[in-house]
Amino acid sequence: MRTGEVTNVSDVAVVVVNYRTPALTVACVESVLRSEGGPPRVIVVDNASGDDSVARLRAAFGTEPAVTVCARDVNDGYTGGNNAGVGLARAAGARWALLLNSDTELDPGCVRRLVEEAASDAEIALATPRIFFGDDPERLWFGGGRFSPWRGRPVHVGFRRRAARGWRTRRDLAFASGCALLVRLDAVRGDPFDASLFAYAEDLDLSLRLRRAGRRIRYVPDALVWHHEGSSHRRAGGQALRFYLNTRNLLRVVARHARWYHWPVLGPMLAVNVVARYAAVAARAGDWSAVGAVGRGAVDAVLGVGGPMRRR
């Protein structure tokens, strides 16, 4: 259903969750403030960093009326921080929330192009940009997304390849990346993310829930973002934490959305394409703590530690 709705800057709130990455968060917010058409409202959520993050953020943006810094007393991860930020966005009257990793920077036209595409059809619930690596700005981090319930592992099209290897036209997606994610707020009831996931695979879970409800997800390659990958978790526990959360959460999310007839193929695929694959990547790097984290993540997913595998 085409809408032709008109969206103003005041309809958009950008949410950035900070955890001990104040310099990156400042750079991210500064890039948002350079957006075409004027700066949107920016909500910076600090997840109990326990360092000088809040002081540095308030020093950087204390006189900027578009920016609000919200200091929380709990670190409940990407999911909890963004859920809190979305609540603040709704309270401020926003119709759209653009969720950004703190280690991203935006092209000035990014917000406008994402909202332009999402506002073109009331069935579009999510929109995501083309994302490049921050340390190699011509190399893709996300050039589109594929996901099959038979294989169980979401794929970033063109990952680590040059721009030509990604999708170059606007199109529907199987899932959107939470690294930079525009959310139509009236399409999501309550919190957008399952807070028990903490971080990783929450974007896949949200995407699959919305698609099951008949909503569309759009890829907007002319909206550009650069991503300094994984900075928060490198500081907060190293690769082991990332491997643990990726393994546990992906197994949980895929299992909760799978149908019975997927399992004869999906079960072996998860064992090989997720658990064995992640363990092999960690082993090649000589990171045996990360190898162990993969195993713990798999066991905890099966046992339901940190939340069940059933559908929400």
UniProtKB/TrEMBL annotation:
The Glycosyltransferase 2-like domain extends over: 14-141
Q: Does the keyword Zinc apply?
A: no
Q: Which family does it belong to?
A: Belongs to the glycosyltransferase 2 family.
- Keyword set, alphabetical order: Glycosyltransferase, Transferase
Q: Name one GO molecular function term.
A: glycosyltransferase activity
The protein, known as: Glycosyltransferase 2-like domain-containing protein
**Which InterPro entries does the entry link to?**
Glyco_trans_2-like (IPR001173), Nucleotide-diphossugar_trans (IPR029044)
* Origin organism lineage: Bacteria, Pseudomonadati, Gemmatimonadota, Gemmatimonadia, Gemmatimonadales
Instruction: Tell whether Glycosyltransferase is among the UniProt keywords.
Output: yes
